[in-house]
Task: structure prediction
Amino acid sequence: MDQRKLIILTTIIKNYLETGEPVGSRTISKYSGLNLSSATIRNEMSDLEEMGYILQPHTSAGRVPSDKGYRFYVDQLMEKQERDLSDVRSSMFDRIEKLESALQSLVRNIASDTHYTALVSGPRMEKNRIKFLQISLVEKGKLLFLLMFEGNIIKTMTVDIDEDLEQNAILSINLLLNDVLGGHSVEEITEEYIRTLLDRSRHRKTMGLLLQSLESMLRTDEQDVEIYTSGATNIFKYPELMDSENASKLIFALESKEELAGLLQEAEEKEEDNKSIQVYIGKESPLQDMADCALVTAKYRLENGMHGTIGVIGPKRMDYEKVLDTLSRLIQEMGEIPLQ
Result:
């Protein structure tokens, strides 16, 4: 099929999907972007009809897509999305590698500059916006559910379903998901959005399963948050932290990824008055095992709404001025890290 026929067929299908009305040459001339006469468009439509891609329901009516036309359109969409996703995955892995390297370097520098223990959480995306959603059939009874955020961050999950879905049904579900959820942040997705999806879907049970999977993908799991640490032994240079009981508690906390992730998460949730840096002294610490320490946390922000937390752990007599200056400078530099 040549490019001109492809544009005309795509225009017919898109317009028919939107209006449900047969599409005539005047509409094609208006929306296709082709600078063609009505006669030329009608000739092309006749060729497409002979090829079996469109139908004329009545002699005086415009054209509507045939099953063959729908199939061609859906296959073109899926091929394009697969190409786009392949490009995205390739560039995404490059960005992840660069970001991990930057965070590892960052935490080492903090520990070296301050002579305390430093930790950094990998970026999270609760406040990031959904770029698009896509389901595709892996095999009978099994879907691959793909969720892409701004910044081209991707999450996937397989979903087991009880019904056989035709490609037209999958296309319909994809259009509905993106129409309702596309462009929204996680916080904006309320029960009203969920009810809308269930009410508008012809495949309510499958949609319910997809929404359960979506909730799971959106839920922030502390075990999924990468934690980078450096200088764990630095704090044992201070006599007040060398008590055997206190030392064992600190060692356990610093070796536990879950404890550290929970510590940074709780510190972030306690952020007051939009202050990026918080200081916890002694029993103010979110973690009981660090009641004999001081903790300074700073929230860093990357582009596209992603963010994480930096933490510095030391004795209560730490050099607060130096630590605050170091973190203030670093969170400003973090905001300049390009993710694209």
Remarks:
- The radius of gyration is 28 Å.
- The CA atoms of residues 301 and 307 lie 4 Å apart.
- The domain at 3-76 is CATH 1.10.10.10 (Arc Repressor Mutant, subunit A).
